[in-house]
Design brief:
single chain, Elongation Factor Tu (Ef-tu), domain 3, alpha+beta, Threonyl-tRNA Synthetase, Chain A, domain 2, 6-stranded mixed beta sheet, about 675 residues, 28 strands, 4 domains, 6-stranded antiparallel beta barrel
Length: about 675
């Protein structure tokens, strides 16, 4: 190092120029420990010895494969401890390549089963004191390595077999076709670098240009297929963004604030280079703490800010692995390539976490109370409430609901840590973890467990879930069920609130009961009894009033009209027509029955003009006349006179109605005319 260079390009000689000797910790340790090889220092000796023991290798301790395993083990463990997980994109793919190269060398030493995860405790023991994140994440690291080893061995066995078949006719100096290498990668999941490693020992190379051409053709076909799939036109831009920038790294499991680089800007469905002050659009960062709406959980809101720019994030969504922040630019302009600080709305995220974790507890409580047939059919997790749809054929009784609520809150009160693990999807399901409806799972899944461990050793509630959750069950505070109801055939829906919302709901209910008690001049515990007594009295009064109105109507006070005098003879049939007011629509049939009983033989029409002006009409025919007269036919004429249509019932009794109750005399006349 010789100069200090300034912004204008000028340089100033440093007062003490220096040479970077490359004397890092391991090289210094090698000098101090009397060796000229990093792999012979105490740290690596422990790792290589552990690798030899795990693989069953008893040869030269300086074997290059032991060194590869030891060196790569450190890299993979530190990456996983930092939250990187193996994947097919970005830094996750770098990790996967490191892991699989180490695993490949384990097989070269004779290992036929997963072994590298057994070396993790040695690394933690050697370096955990200086790097406590290794100690905290040891279980997660070992599980992740073990899972990748299991997947790799399956891939390796199948891939090597196919590679041997594809390269059977090749010799030293030959080249494997790139199309063949790509098929191994694309169809069978055999990475290119493993293909190269396997062939290198035989002196065979791979046509990398042909491999890249095959990759490009596959991407072009994917874009063409997607464009014709009927997706909304605006969404096409997200496919292009995803193809260009790759999946966005989500940091929100561990933090609510982070920094990211703007890698894409979208306005009015088009990619743009800048968003100006006042604009609305979408911002894509290379990494984000904002959760994108998925799995029933709503997206985060918050703020993005940087040098001279500030934006409000109103929602976050996911498109083909891209986290899209919908923003309004409050100040300044936003361009591609700038760095921004991303801050999630903490209060809102906390409420969402509580509600999401509560859905897991309610799911398990529903199964315990209602039966194992209960399975999730959908959910919605928002900051103000949660909604959970599940398979069940009948309404939940109040007693069952109380039991469900109690069980879920008992787990809240345990205040145990909410643990997440990375597992293979099949292993997770075999362990008892429940998959959520509508979710698509890859090879690796997050398994969220809550409550004290049960027989599966994972927890009381164990589900596959990619959402955000509370740190401890006690953070939920309280779960209060709002109610349940039917959604469709065989599907019920339960709604609930948690935390402050649940507490406020409980307090509101207490105040309502206390106010009702004051009005009833009773204690809160006596409110139900007092209300039931009042209801009984009200029903008796309504029955008495109804009977009085019925008697009044039959006695003529209700108004037997001049156009329809009682007990007239029409074509030899006794006919009674009455237009009444002041009775309930449900009493009209009773009035007809009473008149039929009184006259013994004949036809009765009773029309009621309601308080809203609508008309209700009933027609009755005594049993001796139903052979030649039908109340069902006569009611159609009566309802038509009231401006209505149809009406129906039995041959001896039928009822209908219409909008014009003032035309009661016309309805009575219509039946008389038919007779």
């Amino acid at each position: 190092m010789q100069f200090e260079q300034f912004a204008d390009g000028t340089r100033t000689q440093l007062p003490r120029p220096s040479v970077d000797t490359g004397s890092g910790l391991e090289r210094v340790a090698a000098v101090m420990q009397g060796t000229n090889n990093n792999y012979e220092i105490d740290l690596f000796r422990a790792l290589t010895a552990s690798a030899a023991q795990a693989t069953g290798f008893s040869g030269d301790p300086a074997n290059p494969s032991l060194r590869v395993i030891s060196d790569h083990l450190r890299s993979m463990c530190f990456l996983i401890a930092e939250g990187v997980l193996p994947s097919n994109e970005g830094r996750g793919y770098v990790l996967r390549r490191i892991m699989r190269r180490a695993m490949r060398h384990a097989t070269l030493l004779g290992a036929g089963e997963p072994v590298i995860h057994r070396i993790v405790p040695t690394l933690v023991r050697e370096m955990g004191q200086a790097y406590p994140e290794l100690v905290r994440g040891e279980q997660m690291i070992a599980e992740t390595v073990h899972l990748e080893e299991q997947r790799f061995l399956k891939t390796l066995s199948r891939g090597l077999q196919l590679l041997d078949e594809a390269s059977a006719g090749l010799g030293k100096g030959d080249m494997l076709e790139g199309v063949t290498a790509f098929k191994l990668y694309d169809t069978y999941g055999f990475p290119l670098d493993l293909t190269q490693d396997a062939l290198r020992t035989r002196g065979i190379s791979v046509d990398l240009s042909g491999f890249e051409d095959a990759m490009a053709r596959q991407r072009a076909e994917a874009r063409k297929s997607w464009a014709g799939s009927g997706e909304a036109g605006e969404d096409k831009v997200w496919f292009a963004v995803a193809d260009k920038v790759g999946p966005v790294e989500f940091l929100g499991y561990e933090t609510e604030s982070a920094e990211g680089e703007v890698v894409a800007l979208i306005k009015a469905g088009q990619s743009v280079a800048e968003l100006a002050e006042g604009d609305e659009g979408y911002v894509v960062l290379n990494q984000t703490p904002f959760y994108g709406e998925s799995g029933g959980q709503v997206g985060d809101t918050g703020r993005l800010s940087g040098d001279g720019v500030s934006a409000t994030v109103t929602e976050t969504s996911k498109h083909h692995g891209v986290f899209a922040h919908k923003v309004t630019i409050d100040r300044g302009g936003l361009r591609l390539g700038v760095g921004l600080a991303a801050q999630v709305d903490h209060a809102r995220r906390s409420a969402i976490r509580s509600n999401h974790s509560a859905t897991h507890l309610l799911h398990e409580a529903l199964r315990l109370v209602l039966g194992d047939h209960v399975a999730q059919k959908g959910s919605m997790v928002a900051p103000d409430r949660l909604r959970f749809d599940f398979v069940h054929t009948k309404p939940i009784t109040p007693q069952e609901m109380a039991q469900i609520e109690d069980i879920a809150n008992d787990i809240v009160l345990q205040n145990t840590p909410v643990e997440t693990r990375l597992m293979g999807v099949e292993d997770a399901k075999q362990s008892g973890a429940r998959a959520l409806f509508g979710e698509k799972y890859g090879d690796e899944v997050r398994v969220v467990s809550m409550g004290l461990p049960t027989g599966n050793g994972l927890g009381w509630s164990v589900e596959l879930c990619g959402g955000t959750h509370v740190r401890r069950t006690g953070d939920i505070g309280l779960i209060s069920v709002l109610g349940e109801g039917g959604v469709s055939s065989g599907v019920r829906r339960i709604e609930a609130v948690t935390g402050k919302a649940a507490r406020h709901r409980g307090n509101d209910h207490v105040r309502i009961v206390e106010s009702a008690a004051a009005l009833l001049r009773a204690s809160p515990h006596e409110v139900l009894d007092r209300v039931e007594t009042l209801q009984d009295g009200l029903k008796k009064a309504e029955r008495a009033l109804s009977e009085a109105n019925r008697r009044l109507a039959l006695g003529g006070g209700g108004g037997a009209t001049a156009a329809a005098p009682a007990d007239e003879k029409v074509n030899g049939v006794t006919y009674v027509g009455r237009a009444v007011e002041g009775v309930s629509p449900k009493d009209v049939k009773g009035l007809v029955d009473a008149e039929k009983k009184r006259i013994g033989s004949g036809v009765v029409t009773v029309v009621l003009k309601g308080e809203d002006g609508r008309g209700t009409v009933a027609v009755g025919v005594t049993d001796d006349l139903t052979g030649r007269l039908s109340a069902g036919d006569l009611i159609k004429l009566a309802t038509a006179a009231l401006g209505g249509q149809g009406g129906g019932g039995r041959p001896d009794m039928a009822q209908g109605g219409g909008p014009d109750g003032a035309r009661g005399a016309d309805a009575i006349a219509a039946v008389r005319g038919a007779l």
